[in-house]
Amino acid sequence: MNRLNKVGRSAGYAVLAVWVAAxxxxxxxxxxxxxxxxxxxxxxxxxxxxxxxxxxxxxxxLDALGTSLALASCTAVVGTTLGALAARGLVLYAPPAAGLLxxxxxxxxxxxxxxxxxxxxxxxxxxxxxDHAVGVALVHLVPALPYTVLVMTGAHATYDIRMExxxxxxxxxxxxxxxxxxxxxxxxxxxxxxTLAFLVSWSEYLMTVLVGGGLVTTLPLLLFSTAAGSGxxxxxxxxxxxxxxxxxxxxxxxxxxxxxxxxxxxxPTPPSPRTERAxxx
Length: 281
Fold this sequence. Notes:
mainly alpha, 12 helices, 75% helix
């Protein structure tokens, strides 16, 4: 029975690996293709010309990569901070109309994206924030904030604020409480929220087009314009890889850090009474 379970588990992992790798394999082949004409199943010639074109300043790929990284990092930091503050207020202090505030904060994920983008663009144009990187950075917070609020609300639901009160009673300043109590206890949730906000901003296309007006170029915009306008499949594949790799690396790093420092609220298997007695003895 154990051997059957092991075989079944291995088969499941193999199917999952094929499912994940299947879309990536053609991308890797096209990224190193010099000539691939139908009906050949594999490229007739391999080349690194597409990678050399990425380094060409005229292609604006490196500039778009830097812009995407800056916008996603800014969204992660600001979105996580705002989400943490909103969740803390909603959960720990229960303000009047807390339910309505939750709905308003989560509204960007409840409204169809195109309708939301058109409405937001109108506001940004009237505020003079359109066609500017600052406006794009702000508009990326709109779809990212609901996710950070959701993550931080879950973290604060089991957060014991009495730890802060005890530290204050012992004479700790507000800054010391924040540095030594609040941030360490919420660190896993903050990391998860920042990762989600980064990923949302990194792949954002519609709002970047509408608010950036084509003057703020990110990697998703460059990918879509290359795929639709140039017909250069190898360059499109290279751009696709450049967009896919950072989120995968970030997700792996975040997963590793979360595994090393698991929060008490994230532990699905609380210790049994026997374990607690053994630990006490």
